Amino acid sequence: MRGTVRKISMPRRFLADLMHASIRVPFVSLRRTLNIRQLIEARAMMAQPPGFAAIFVKAFCLVAKDEPVLRTLYAKWPWPHFYELPRNVGAVAIARVEDGEDCVLPQKVTAPEELPLAQVDALIRHAKDAPVSEVPAFRKILFTTRLPLPLRRLIWLVGINFGRQHANYFGNVAVTSVAAYGAGELHALSPGPYILSYGVVGPDQSIDVVIRWDHRVTDAALIAKVLTRLEQVLNTEIAAELRSQRQQTEPKPVLAVAT
To answer: Do residues 98 and 132 touch, judged by C-beta distance below 8 A?
Structure first.
């Protein structure tokens, strides 16, 4: 059979490099259905609600603010050790179409727990809609991806094995989902240490959430507690911020003055 040889595009080459860097991470998964009724009610009252990617990356990082192990990654160089980040760095998977081809590129969000939810959402939407050349994270990725394979492999080795560089390039949590394309449970790969994916909101206002984590860093008992805390944060702190944002954007009533 004679097939057609096709060139690998830059976004697909990046994903090939990412999978190569992720293949040896010992991931374990935990899935749970979260009741997010209060969040859904608060979000439904907004004219332009933030996307769930922004909501989940901020909510996870709010939990991680009080759980140092969620900001901890496993580093191999110069010797095996744990490296704790002083603040969160999230990477949100952005689905795009470049040159007619579907692809995924990560948008870096530094300290989302310290940013207004609207600002986090704006960063993600900009990465979705703006040209690649206008998104700094994408420019850095594609610049590296254009390099020859041996040099790329060296850069990736440094990036994933030194704690500080891992934190700068990949952060501590990746957020991804296929909910925009229908229901499905996604078990993604990344250099770690944490990956959060979410599904479609059900008619009972619940949502399936999967957390994958590097088992060298922590165990399932903590992740079970994290999912419980995540549900609380979504229904309290995030829902409260949405209500506050709605009140700030609502036009104030004009009082009539009797004459």
So the answer is: yes
